[in-house]
């Protein structure tokens, strides 16, 4: 189960997604946790069949459920509601501004199950709360690095402090590319398999350049030079040049970098005076786009080389 969770109080405090929730009963349970972005409509559970009830999910009661509780005999309503409230349910949410039966209010209050109401239609509310929960319950992490949008490719630059990541990002911005985040990149896993990076709000649009200080990219270069968030598509690590180290010179083997259990294409670029890192990163992004179209330059060159070695003129054999 996802260890990230939200409390019912977090749902009540929402102002961004327009849930418009009001607490009617069960205030003692507003600390209940929600772990899943999936909701449940407990229609069958209200009839007494609780076999497939998921108490850890938000339980949404719409016009059908409330009408059913009002239509059946009061004794049966009480029996079914009492049985339902014996489960450790995270919360009940009644849509369309409907007034829930008194028995549901009483049992929810007694069991400490938050009972909330929203003015939205069921379909609208389910769409809103699903988006809210999906966004808030996604796995997240933060990485020391720089995220830039290069030719539409989200490139995450990593490497030890002072290696030149921010300077590379600044040079890329000057060349017309876009900054997403500098220093700290907050990464969120979007299902099923995408990682979205963005900056912390306090340092958004800013870059720290040693010797120059902190500069505001948006103010200096305009809104076309920044992005609020971007899907990360490749990772480039900047490392100090080591004459003893053997670096990849062919690019035949594709390495990967794992973030939140997702593997991303990974390149290691050695840094030394005279190397134009900005051009290398830009070409790396172009090459990534080509690979996405099924064209792998290094492998094609390797295959052509092997083909030339296999077809040699007569008389070239060495006895």
From TrEMBL:
Superkingdom of this protein's organism: Bacteria
Transmembrane segments: none
Region feature Important for the catalytic mechanism of both phosphorylation and dephosphorylation, mapped onto this chain: 207-216
Residues the entry annotates as binding ATP: 159-166
Class of this enzyme: transferase
Domain HPr(Ser) kinase/phosphorylase N-terminal: residue ranges: 7-133
Region Important for the catalytic mechanism of dephosphorylation, annotated ranges: 270-275
Keywords on record: ATP-binding, Kinase, Magnesium, Metal-binding, Multifunctional enzyme, Nucleotide-binding, Serine/threonine-protein kinase, Transferase
HPr kinase/phosphorylase C-terminal domain mapped to chain residues: 136-304
InterPro entries: HPr(Ser)_kin/Pase (IPR003755), Hpr_kin/Pase_C (IPR011104), Hpr_kin/Pase_Hpr_N (IPR011126), P-loop_NTPase (IPR027417), Ser_kin/Pase_Hpr-like_N_sf (IPR028979)
UniProt-recorded Gene Ontology molecular function terms: kinase activity
Cofactor: Mg(2+)
Record field: catalytic activity: [HPr protein]-L-serine + ATP = [HPr protein]-O-phospho-L-serine + ADP + H(+); [HPr protein]-O-phospho-L-serine + phosphate + H(+) = [HPr protein]-L-serine + diphosphate
Keyword flag Cytoplasm: no
EC number(s) per entry: 2.7.11.-, 2.7.4.-
Active site as annotated: 144, 165, 183, 249
Function: Catalyzes the ATP- as well as the pyrophosphate-dependent phosphorylation of a specific serine residue in HPr, a phosphocarrier protein of the phosphoenolpyruvate-dependent sugar phosphotransferase system (PTS). HprK/P also catalyzes the pyrophosphate-producing, inorganic phosphate-dependent dephosphorylation (phosphorolysis) of seryl-phosphorylated HPr (P-Ser-HPr).
The record's note on its domains: The Walker A ATP-binding motif also binds Pi and PPi.
Family per record: Belongs to the HPrK/P family.
Assembly and binders: Homohexamer.
Alphabetical list of PANTHER family matching this protein: HPR KINASE_PHOSPHORYLASE, PROTEIN YJDM-RELATED
Protein name: HPr kinase/phosphorylase
Gene: hprK
